[in-house]
Amino acid sequence: MYRFLLTPRWWAINVFVVLAVPICLAAGTWQLSRFEAQVDSHREQERLAEGEGEVRPLAELLPLTTETVGHQAEITGSFDAEHQLLVPERMVDGRRGFYVLTPLRPTDGSPAVPVVRGWLPGRADPAAAPEPPAGEVTVVGALQAAESPSKVSGRTEGLAPGELGVIGAASLINVLPYEVTDSWITVREPEPPLVAVPATAPTGTGLDLDAFQNLGYTAEWFVFAGFAVFMWFRLFRREVEQQRDRELGLTDEGPAPGGGTAAPGRPNGPDRPDRPTGPGGPKTRDEPDERAGATRPNRPPERPADDLART
């Protein structure tokens, strides 16, 4: 009954479904794994933002990657108070203020590290910023990536001397007389009255729009796989029904049920058994119509033209 599955048409359908379903499932699983990775990254960033996690030497976390951003780093050196900078118009807990940034010169002679020692409310005022500790210190804080000018909430132009608009090596290279890393540290436990600057997650991590797009793509690929199976079953059922109808003679290709007349749409044979020819039935062209005289009205006999002239 299912021999039609071996026809070329059904071979093509079967091969397409057999290939399409695993491919759709694999693509959906891959998109789901990307979404789960984004969720794990978001949870990790939340944990690191709270100051949790193992403190590691800064040298082990460089060069900076999306996996190392936000980790607690430790570095030993001395602050360069002469080149302390203020980063104006920065928001913390819904209030506007400024960062206090002081370069740290490591004891091992490596490039200096920008350290945001904390945040203060109000307008950027050098007199309000406390002096950094003197001598050798050990700083512990969250490692951050260089800022992008397009994503900075504060002012980046028209800055006063001693102010910095964007935290990064590209901006500091014109301010400091020595080399600096293209990353910075926000101190986990600043000295009063400074307030700790929250760590930010790197671009492309966390539950952002891209993460939910991956979740949407997951659903789409799984729906495609289910649709391919559904269409195959629908075509299969229709083929079985058509084959059953042909066996029962319910189509034009076979006799009608009961073995009577030919299939609908076909003319009758020469005998035309379904067309009565007896009395009361339709007459052929050669048969006289006996009822013609009964139905024809009586007319007076025609008179010759001479008779009409004499009268």
TrEMBL record:
Subcellular localization(s) per the UniProt record: Cell membrane; Membrane
A GO cellular-component term linked to this record: plasma membrane
Topological type in the membrane: Multi-pass membrane protein
Higher taxonomy: Bacteria, Bacillati, Actinomycetota, Actinomycetes, Kitasatosporales
The protein, known as: SURF1-like protein
CDD domains hit by this protein: SURF1
Alphabetical list of Pfam families matching this protein: SURF1
Region (Disordered): 248-311
Keywords: Cell membrane, Membrane, Transmembrane, Transmembrane helix
Broad class of the protein's primary localization: membrane
Composition bias type Basic and acidic residues, residue spans: 283-311
Database matches in InterPro entries: Surf1/Shy1 (IPR002994), Surf1/Surf4 (IPR045214)
Transmembrane regions: 215-236
Stated family: Belongs to the SURF1 family.
KW ATP-binding (keyword) present: no
